[in-house]
Please model this.
Amino acid sequence: MTRGSRAAGRAGLASLQFGLVLFVLLPVFWMVSVSLKPATEPFAIPARLWPDHPTLANFLHAFRPEFRTYFINSVVVSLATVAISVSLGLLAAYSFTRTQFRLLSVLMALVLAAQMFPESAIIIPIYRIMRSADLLNTYASLIIAYVAVTLPVAIWMLRAFLMRLPPTLEEAAEIDGAGPLRTFLDIVLPLSRPGVVATAVFVLVVTWQEFLFALSFISSKSMRTLPVGINDFIGQYGISYGELMATSVLISLPVVAIFMVLQRYFVAGLTVGAVKG
Amino acid sequence: MKRGRWLVFLFVSPAVILVGVLMYYPMIGTVIDSLYATSFIDPTPKFVGLSIYREILTSIDFAEVVRNSCIWTAGVVLLQNVVGFAFALLLDQRLPGRALMRSLVLLPWVLPGVVAAILWRFMFDPQLGLINSFLIRLHLSGQGIPWLAQTSTALPAAIVAAVWKGFPFSTVVYLAGLQHVDAEQIEAAIIDGAGQLRRLFDVVLPAMRELIALNVILTTILTFNYFDMIWVLTRGGPENATNIFPTRIFELAFGEFRFGEGATYGVFSILVLTLLLALYAAIRRGAERKSAGA
Model:
């Protein structure tokens, strides 16, 4: 390869790089920029990338009473889902990894296969179940559905993690006379913390943004979660784009913050399963 | 029963019961529901056999939904994997700020789907949107293009938004895959004088063939059934131009209370899923046999 074509290649690579980075970051940057734009500063046509006098006024407006209700609902549903899904997932993943017999392998294959099931295609019977159990418009309907949907992936991630833990420690505990429950609580639980954190982050990210079930099961305004709530703000009289973007930032901040802090665990947890299966 | 097995069953039963009732039963329930007709005026289900299937298969709506779903899925999956792979290659290089980029690239994936959709609705806005602003500034368009409001551009616009939201997942998968490409083979290719592109096509891509195939099928399943983005962007409009299976099912079931029709669309989605899962399992088995033989 000649020097000229190599330089051209490098320039091409650099511009590709720039284009890709712009594609990822520009929309997010703009969301933040518009959220800081004062309502008095009219939308210039063509738009400005950054407001002349950034302000937090949109954020103060965004803290409307409905938003606070939706926020609390989202927190309750997400935390409950994470706690239940990860606990049940860990118990099941542990059993699936450490014990092997035919029926159990079949059950495991069935549970893991469900992570591919499309909720949008089977929403009607799920809705019917919630309706006949009289659970529509309750936290319980969402928590139960979210646990069912996230459990297969949670088990899959935790299992991939547990398979890499050496069984020698557990064997030692058993020789010392510890029962299976003791071994689980004293040995397995503390060792699996990184896997648990990774799984919890994943379940949180999925639950915090879940839209379809929340839209189907919840009709009462006071029980809505954030995704359905903000979707309802679109085009509503008196809610400006600035406020809509401020609300978007507020909804995104909790998960983005948690994710950024814990992503090291998360990426490792996700890719162990993805690459080695 | 052997000692300790009762504990195992106790441990797995909550997961098995929940997944059984809320994931497996609904797969069968959807098929059953598709045999019963309901409507807003008459919500009691009436058994109608296969007549809903006959009605749907000959309807224009169904043809449009199938066409849109094909374009949507093919477009999103192709672009998502290409962009995802390109980003993985980029982040695999020793570049300044790589660690920061690795976190930032995941931002669209972490951002809640509805937020991403609202953001892109705004990006595509004819007057206030960033995209049209650039076009107007560069004098490529006089007053901005109503991307989401005209039938010719709505679906491509939705595809761009979905690619933006979804590609980081592929990047993470491919980045992990790149770590497993045999370094010796790459060394050998370098000694043979292969340039970057040759190395990519002759060594890296063949080594990652199965991973790419599996990820393409996985993203196909996710994209085919992706509801949030299109619902928030266009609700399937204008004039059905972006209506895909998930949005059509929701509209029929919860907008018009025609559960039977909604479920029938669901049955077709399940059929597509079954085909894709069979393909997935076949590739997986092939890969395992190969690595066991090696």
In short: Chain A has two domains: 1-55, 61-276. The two ends of chain A are 40 Å apart (CA to CA).
